[in-house]
Amino acid sequence: MHNDVKNPTRRQLFKAIGAATAAGATAGLLPGCGKSARHTRENLSFSEIPHTLDARHHLPKEYSANVLLRWGDPLVASAGSFNPATLTASEQEKRFGYNNDFIGYMPLDDKAGPGEGEHHCRSRNSARGLLCVNHEYTQPHLMFSGYNDKYSATRGVSAEHVAVEQAACGHTVVEIEQTADGWQPVLSSPYNRRISLNTPMHIVGPAAGDRRLQTAADSSGTRVFGTVGNCAGGKTPWGTVLIAEEGFGGAFQGDPDNIADPVESLNHHAFGIAPDNRNWGDHDRRFDIGVEPHEPNRFGWMVEYDPYDPDSTPRKLTSLGRFEHEGFTLVSKPGQPIVAYGGDDDEHQFVYRYVSSDIYKPDDFSHNRDLLIDGTLYAARFDEGGSGRWLPLLFGQGPLTRENGFRNQADVLIDARRAAALLGATPMDRPEDVETNSVNDCTYVMLTKNKKRDSDEIDAANPRARNATGHVLEIVPPGQYGRRDHTSDTFKWNTFLLGGNPNAENPNERGAYGQQLPGAISANGWFANPDNVAFDPRGNMWIATDGCEGFGFHDGLWAMATDGELRAAPKHFFGCPQGAEACGPEFTPDGKTLFVAVQHPADGGGSTFDRPLHRWPDNDPALPPRPAVLAIRRRNGNEIGS
Ligand code: FEO
Ligand code: CA
Ligand code: CA
């Protein structure tokens, strides 16, 4: 999501706790996690594309992409062709949603059916699977005719359009298969499903049922309709998908200062709920905090669901805390607890880790299904000198007591931000994806930017004031290459790269990549604002960006080795059409297909449905620009980037 989509006013409320000393922003980057020279960038053999900015998407010449799914594409054969002028909410519930973000590819075993996720997710089938896609947020000025600008659309949406928007948020499950014409959706599939703001869900874990989760419509505090702000996510080895609730505050309107309970007033301010947010609450009263002050507490969680069982009820996992979740990704080792890493995508917010109470048993699917319900959440403290510590968010420990306003563990999880700050976790430059490279077993933190960091607030892990270009940290748990202990409460860390132009005059925007060998990156190799990340089967890192247009070129994908001489030396692979950010890169298990979500094409610059900047991907005068998922293949069919 673009930074300006969220409400900016609440950001002032988070004054950093301010660590003092600063490392030089462009100091030489340490070799870090790598021990082997195997994974050099020589095997990233594609023809690099240039930094450009136009109405098309761009790929190396030896690659091609087909448009797999666009906003409004039917998920059932009976839905027919798409006409945005006549779109109703019930019709939208049968169609691909808006602003695609996270993508999870879940393989389908040809010999198994619905409800048999155990068989499917082991099959590693790379030619047929379920594509599980988040729809982060809606933009009525680009979805519907008649709105003159973004603000009038946001504040003046009709009841009918609010209903369509709420049906266009959430998530899609759709079966896809590889055909002679490229990847295609299977419209007859029993798995195809939309999850929207209307989908019934359970609330589970330590905060479920707490009085702060109870509303007039749900006195149990355990049942809620829908999910929103679905940014990135994760996958589990037991065949479920995790979807994050990130910018949910923007869905609620009302003035937190008018809420009598000071705890909730502070809480609602912290997530940007304000009188001039979008006007959904006019038409759907639960989104007005003056009517239902607890409804926002039922959002801001990670949601887990089973894509292999189309009748399953998604559940919100309170064990993973409540904040603006970018996503949570897992480290699953047989006989050990599950470890999951996630970020809170806001200025001066924290990096989190979860460790399950019980161990992961690869052959016991029913046992594994509860591993994300019972465990401990931690926040990261990055110390000077490259060491760090995970700080547990446990009621009664340290400052997490009644004296500081916490009644119980539910309060600690509902107000996880406040708990982590009291524990002394390090406020970061907007943590986006946090994901582990299974080849070297190190964990990488995408920090997209933080223009609100003052010069007296810089620290070793966030070394730039007014960080406009973002950076990437590498967490190195104790242990050997490829066999590290992610359950340890201590870790080492180092700066993997600093985003930005390596030749920028402003030292706060000057990029630093790898070992800075002469010629290691080209003039097109640098980028800004890392957001999502994926690793190919060989352990190369693929970073998706959100913000490069501020530096004069498209957002897209950059690929790089994580080890060896060309570690952290990026090469430019994919470029978005103007206005879009790149999201959700996801490889098939064989590494031969790369799915990319192009989010909010033609956004910005006064672009509207009636006067769009361009009409990617259809370029049809009858259709608006449409967020879409591309399936990228190498023309010779070989592994991507090999
Ligand atoms: Fe939705 Fe954190 O980007
Ligand atoms: Ca983003
Ligand atoms: Ca993101």
From TrEMBL:
It comes from the Bacteria. It holds the Pfam family PhoX. SUPFAM superfamilies: Calcium-dependent phosphotriesterase. PROSITE patterns: TAT. This is Uncharacterized protein.
